[in-house]
Amino acid sequence: MDVFSRTFLPAAAEAGLAVQTVSRHMSIFRRCVGSGDATILVARCSRPDRPVAADHLLLLTHHRLVVIQQSRVLHRLRLHLNSELRDLSNVNWHADPRSPAIELAVTAIDGIRERFVIPAHHPKQLWHLDALFGQAFRLQPPGTPARPDAAVAG
């Protein structure tokens, strides 16, 4: 079993995803992520500007951010975002204990600003998500130059 599979399956289980959901999304994630890239987070998310338009599943690895959109009516899967972390700029996230949710905002290489809200079921999970985003975006992978225009804030 490769690194991606060994780390993706426990992260999906931690997110409480059904086996059917994992198997439906796995082929798209496999096309986007290398076999040696370890999963940091798998989570359901929504877009605050379109909260009822579709369901989204977010995958964060040490090198990539991938978001898959699933239509509500026909349940069709479509790749929404697939980007290397070093190609993202103006990355920030905000943990709101009152909601409880964490909002992640990134600007993709094409200049499009993306925002995602990831629900947390309890405050401990909220701070765990905050720590995972810190791990992914504050620390650059070894040998990866930071983009000079990338502003990172937490």
- Overall average residue pLDDT: 87
Backbone structural class:
alpha+beta
Instruction: Please give the alpha-carbon distance between the first and last residues.
Output: 34 Å
CATH arch. level architecture: Roll
Number of DSSP strand runs: 8
Uncertain runs with pLDDT below 50, 5 residues or more? 140-154
Question: Within the CATH hierarchy, at the fold level, what is the topology?
Answer: PH-domain like
- Report on the biggest sheet: 4 strands, antiparallel
Q: Helix count?
A: 3
Number of structurally distinct domains: 1
Helix-strand topology string? HHEEEEEEEHE
Topology:
Layout (H helix, E strand, L loop, with lengths): L2 H12 L4 H14 L6 E7 L8 E8 L2 E8 L5 E8 L4 E8 L4 E7 L5 E7 L3 H16 L13 E2 L1
Parallel strand pairs: 5-8
Antiparallel strand pairs: 1-2, 2-3, 3-4, 5-6, 6-7
